Amino acid sequence: MTKEIPVVYSPLSDLHNPQFEYFNCRPKPHQDTPQRTESIMTALRVSGFVDIRESDIKEALPFVLRVHDHNYLQFLKETSESAGRMAEKSGNPNEAIYPSIHRYIDRGRASNSISRRGLYVYDTYTPIMQHTEKAALASAGVAIAGAKQLIQGESLVYTVNRPSGHHAEEAGALGMCYLNNTAIAVQSILDAGAKKVAVFDIDLHHGNGSQDIFYRRSDVLVVNINADPKTRFPHFSGYADEHGQDDGEGYNYNFPLPDGVDDTQYTQTAEKALKIIARYQPEYLLISAGFDTHEKDPIGAFKLTTGYYQELGTQISKLNVPILVIQEGGYASELLGQNVVSFLKGLSGNK
Q: Rounded to an integer, what distance in angstroms lies between the CA atom of residue 302 and that of residue 63?
C-alpha cells in the first residue's frame, strides 16, 4: 500500500479575495481566487492517497523575519489595517489598496502612505486588503509547517499555499505574492541544520523573488524553468545569463522557454535542470509548483497536459531526495486540482 502524502493547508489563506487586477490601467477580474484552493482541496480529498493536516504554526513572524525586511512587514501590517478601516467605513469588505506611484530612483525616500505603497508594491496586480497580511502569514505558516514535516523525516510533503510567494522579494510585493513562502521554508530548513538546499521553480513565470533572495549565496541552488521574460511577467529577470553573484556565482540557473512549449520540449529542458540539481547534491529539494504551464491556463503560454505533470513528477523523484512541494500559480481553477494530483502521483510513484 502506498504511503499517504502529508498535505498542509490553512483555511485562513482564503481570507484574501481580491476582485481586480489592473493591466494597462484597466481593471480585469483577479486571477487569484479562493476557487483555486477549493479545486485543489476537493481533488486531494478524492484522490485517497493524501493525509490532509491543518497548519500547526501559530506564529509565523519569527520565521518570516529571517527572510523579509522588518519595515516592509510593518508596511504590510499597517496597510492591511488601513484597508480594514476603509472597508468598515464604506461597508464594502473588498476595499483594496493599490500603488498609484512607484519609486523612480534607488535612493528615494517614502515619507507618507501614498509613497510607501510605491516603495513596497511593484505592480498593480497585487492589492492589499483588510485580510492580506493575515492570509499571507497563514500561507507562510503552511510552508513552515511543511518544512517541519520534512525535517522530521517525511520524504514528500505538499503545501496548499495562497497567496503564492515566489515573486515576493525581501522588501517588496508583486505578482500576487506578498511573502516568499519557498524562501521562508528554505531558511527554516537551513536554520534547523541543513547545509545545502535546492529550489526548483516550475511556475510559468520566473521566480524573481526566490532568485533575488538567494542570489549571493551558495547554500541554496535556485533553478527556474520559465517563460521568456522578453514577453512574459516579471519581465526584468529570468534570463539565461543570470548565474548568481559573489558567493552565489554558479548557484542560479534559468531556462527561459518560448510560448507554445509542449510536453516533449519541456521534458528535454527538465532533464537539463535536474542534472544541475543532481550535481549539487542537495539535502532537501523544494519545488515552487506553478501549474500555469497548463495548456488551458487563462494567462499561460505553454501547452503542458494534465497527464504530463505525472511524468514530470516521476522525473523529479529520481533525484531520491526529500521533497517539499509548495503551491504557486495555476489559474485554470476547474483543472488545478487534477494537475496537482497528477504531479503528486508522479513524485510519489502512485499509479
A: 35
For residue 210, what are the CA distances in angstroms to 111, 179, 345, 347? 28, 10, 26, 22
For 90, 189, 227, 247, the CA distances from 240, given in Å and listed in that order, are 48, 28, 11, 19
How many residues in the chain? Answer: 351
Q: Is 243 a catalytic residue?
A: no
Here the cell at position 231 is: 514577453
- Specify the DSSP class assigned to residue 177: B
Least confident of 76-90, 109-123, 167-181, 254-268: 109-123
Residue 2 burial class via C-beta count within 10 angstroms: exposed 0-12, middle 13-18, buried 19 and up = exposed
Domains of the chain, by residue range, sit at: 5-348
Instruction: For residue range 1-60, list pLDDT tens digits in order.
Output: 568 999 999 999 999 999 999 998 899 999 999 999 999 999 999 999 999 999 999 999
Distance between CA 170 and CA 158 in Å, rounded? Answer: 24
pLDDT of the residue at 24: 87
> Which one is catalytic: 167, 205, 206, 294?
167
| Angle made by CA atoms 273, 256, 237, in degrees to the nearest 5 | 110
CATH topology classification for 5-348: Arginase; Chain A (3.40.800)
Q: E strands along the chain, which residues?
A: 5-9, 20-23, 26-29, 50-54, 156-159, 197-201, 220-227, 252-257, 284-289, 323-327
Q: Model confidence over 275-320: pLDDT tens digits?
A: 999 999 999 999 999 999 999 999 999 999 999 999 999 999 999 9
Q: What one-character-per-residue DSSP string does 131-168 give? A: THHHHHHHHHHHHHHHHHHHHTT-SEEEE--SS--TT-
Entry pTM? 0.97
What's the rounded Cα separation, in Å, for the pair 176 and 197? 25
